[in-house]
Amino acid sequence: MRILYVAIDQAVPGTRGGSTHVVAVAEGLAALGHEVHVLASPGDSGPFPPGPVRWHALGPPLGLRQLRILRTRQVLALAKTIHPDAIIERYYNFGGEGVRAARATGAPIVLEVNAPIVDYAGSPKRRLDRALLVEPMRRWREWQCAAADLIVTPSASIVPRSVPREKILEIEWGADTERFHPGARGPLPFTRHADGTLAVFAGAFRPWHGAIHLVEAIRRLRARGRTDITAVMIGDGPELTRVRRAAAGVEGVTFTGAVSHDRMPACLAAADIGVAPFDVAAHAPLALDFYWSPLKIFEYMAAGLPVLAPDIPRLRRIVTHEREGLLYDASEPDGLALTIERLAKDAPVRASLGAAARDRVVREFGWDVHCRKLDEAMRRCAF
Question: 146 near 160, Cβ under 8 Å?
Answer without folding.
Answer: no
